[in-house]
Amino acid sequence: MLLIRRSHRGVHPPENKNTRGIAIKRLDNFDIISIPLDMQIGPGSTPLVAKGDTVLVGQRIGEPMGGWSVPVHSSVSGIVESVKKEIMSDGDVIEYVTIINDHGYVVSPDVKPPQINNRDDFIAALRDSGLVGLGGAAFPTFVKQNPPPYKDIDLLIINAAECEPYITSDHRIMLDFPDEVIAGCMIAASWLSIKQVIIGVEDNKPDVKKPLEEAIRAYPRRESDTDIEIKIKVLPTLYPTGAEKVLVNKLTGRVVPMGGLPADVGVIVQNVTTIAFISAYMKTGMPLIRKVITLDGSAAAEPGNYDVPVGAHIEDVIEAAGGTRTKPGKIIMGGPMMGTAIDELSRPVLLQTNAILILSEEDAILPKEIACISCGECVRACPMILQPTSLDKAARRLDVDTLDKEYVLNCIECGCCSYVCPSKRYLVQNIVIGKGLVRDAQKRGEVD
Ligand code: SF4
Ligand code: SF4
């Protein structure tokens, strides 16, 4: 187990939290919705609908394929135009259900609050809701909240760090829905028999503490809930505090082992928007069909936080949110550190999409990389105590043994190494390729 503290490593990119003061605006005027049947870590779903079928809001349109899968639901009412497979930019083939929106937003009669009498019911309800980690990881929540019994869980951490530049959707959820955040904490802690909850928030969001504390005081506790303690812990702003393993270390001093999960050190970590959704779902039974996303960037005409149906096309979201003020050079799904550039504007908003960044042509120019000068900046910045420069070189020469021995799979793809590199080396890009090489070698049984 690596025991070096990760707390002080990371970077301070410009925050650009331009949209934190703008209340969430709902957008509904989308004619076509394309919902992928695979938006999670693990196997996706198989279609339950066919061309010509009528679908309603909240109706299940994808049946889980594996033990880790969650169902997929329609975000609009309308007619299924097609169910077909498409090749993604990374070569993956994903099946999509495309729906012509009738703009009636007629809700399925199947949408009802779940009946929950015990922990198993709670876990089953999480699965039925289609909930995955909304911070970007898309790990199925029902799996995360149901660790094996031999893991002794004593702490629920709510990840409210939102450390990536530009993104403010979690911040807005805390400001606009503090009661849902606290109710979600209490519901999850109660069913999972956890007595300690810590909400970890960075000090660039000082305005969330008061509404969250008021919501804690106002929550109508049952007799069985009185010993659940919820604390708000404020952390210095430093990217990537929101990375699960980094957050656990900063809040508790516990070190998640290489290749391990927070549950290995007694912790479940849940994103703050995910936990707020749990509360809303228990009241209404409406599955996860909408997302609040931050839309920003130098070419965005009207930056803000927008509540949109899952499956809305990126180009339509941009249009509905005021369009662009200059020609875009690059559009990124997610933040500037960990997001991915999209290849087609018709790509849809996914369950885990938390931002769309529209960069001007000027801001999209990639710096030219030059030779490594062995300055060590990338090593000092890496929150996972890796050797990015060595991993980069090993990936370029396809050296799987070195990549494996130097724990490339522990890289969280935070991009800190690339950010600090004075030679503008494409470190994280090559390290991601290196991770793929090791995973392929593992499948062939060539490395452990
Ligand atoms: S090697 Fe990975 S974890 Fe370390 S700084 Fe680079 S991207 Fe982040
Ligand atoms: S920061 Fe860049 S130049 Fe410095 S050691 Fe790392 S790769 Fe080399």
Looking at this protein, list some descriptive labels:
alpha/beta; 6-stranded mixed β-sheet; 4-stranded antiparallel β-sheet; 13 helices; 26% helix; disordered N terminus; binds iron/sulfur cluster
Structure description:
A six-stranded mixed sheet has the order 1-14-13-17-15-16, sandwiched between helices. A four-stranded antiparallel sheet has the order 2-8-7-4, with no helix packed on it. Helix 4 packs across helix 5, helix 4 packs across helix 7 and helix 10 crosses helix 13. The protein contains 13 helices and 17 strands. Among the domains are: 119-284, 3-Layer(aba) Sandwich (Rossmann fold); 377-443, no CATH class. Mean pLDDT is 94; it is low at 1-5. With 448 residues, it is α/β, with parallel strands linked by helices. The two termini are 17 Å apart. The site of one iron/sulfur cluster has 16 residues, from helix 12 and helix 13. One iron/sulfur cluster (SF4) binds at residues 381-384, 386, 388, 411-417, 427-428, 431.
Topology (elements, then pairings):
Blueprint: E1 25-26, E2 32-36, E3 45-47, E4 54-55, E5 60-64, E6 72-73, E7 78-87, E8 93-101, H1 119-128, H2 141-144, E9 155-160, H3 169-176, H4 178-191, E10 196-202, H5 209-218, E11 229-235, H6 244-252, E12 267-271, H7 272-284, E13 290-296, E14 304-309, H8 314-320, E15 328-333, E16 340-341, E17 355-360, H9 377-381, H10 388-396, H11 400-405, H12 416-420, H13 427-443
Parallel strand pairs: 1-14, 9-10, 9-12, 10-11, 13-17
Antiparallel strand pairs: 2-8, 3-5, 4-7, 5-6, 7-8, 13-14, 15-16, 15-17
Helix pairs in contact: 4-5, 4-7, 10-13
